[in-house]
Amino acid sequence: MEPCTFVICSHQKESNEKAIDYLYRRLIDASFKLDENNPNLIIVLGGDGSFLHAIHDYDFIGNFLLINTGHLGFFSDYELKDLEECVNDIINKEDTYEKLPLFNAYYLNKNHLFLSDFTLLSEKTTELNLFIDNQYLTKSRCSGIVIASPIGSTGFINSLNSPVIFRSDMGIYQYSLLAPVFNRLYPNSINRGILSQNQNLFINVNDGRNSCILDGIKYDVNFDGEITISSSERNLSLIHFKDSDNLLRISKAINLKEE
After folding, report:
1. I want to staple 41 with a disulfide (CB 3.0 to 4.6 A). Which of 6, 68, 111, 116 is the partner?
2. Helices and strands in the chain, H and E counts
């Protein structure tokens, strides 16, 4: 790729110190310029949690590359053992960009972007009323709700028996209630559903001590009120030097290596 501004993010700086120093030296020698405030290229050393923190820290602006030093490395094309290959690819190969859709969670008079999922989690139980656009859908008393993008379909929401979405550009998202109550007061909750990106999911939270969690990061606690979920016009840019798409990521994450 053409030399540009860059930054290296790591939540495990001590354990990755040698790798970070190597990246800085190689890239600066290749005329890349360090810019911690407005980088074009954001290299994350860590796992998927570090990656999700980094995209929020930089407000989803820039082109992101994960070098996996964690466990699964869902968003990574490179492992730490591939560090030299990764740097050589950055310096010498033509880059490609993958645009991943972002979604909005609007509450407390503010838009909150997320890439993977938004979770409302109650310490006890909370009563939720759900609407699609202006049409009433269902009422439930439950432990919360998970809303996931196609990228997030292999995460928390998949453990709730929601389907995996293989393409990141399907133009849909989905929700699943957490531990819904079934009794005569709440007999017919619609526990999960798939929505078009053109539809807004409106959630009225009536009670409970709730936390709002975006991409695994807790932002607001003791919340009740109204939440609107919608697709965003913004995208997250992943940079690649190898063939990659959401199906390849899923295959790498869940399949055993072929003998």
Report:
1. 6
2. 4, 13
Per-residue model confidence as pLDDT tens digits over 180-196: 999 988 888 999 999 99
Query: Cα angle vertex 2, ends 232, 241, to 5°?
Result: 65
Rounded to a whole number, what is the distance in angstroms from the first to the last CA of the chain? 34
Q: Is 59 exposed, middle or buried (0-12, 13-18, 19+ CB in 10 A)?
A: exposed
52: DSSP letter: H
What letter would DSSP give residue 95?
P
Give the gyration radius of the chain's Cα atoms: 20
Give CA–CA dist 95/40, Å, rounded. Answer: 13
**Confidence band, pLDDT 50/70/90 cuts, at residue 257:** low
Residue 53: its H or E element: helix 48-57
What's this model's pTM, rounded to 2 decimal places? 0.92
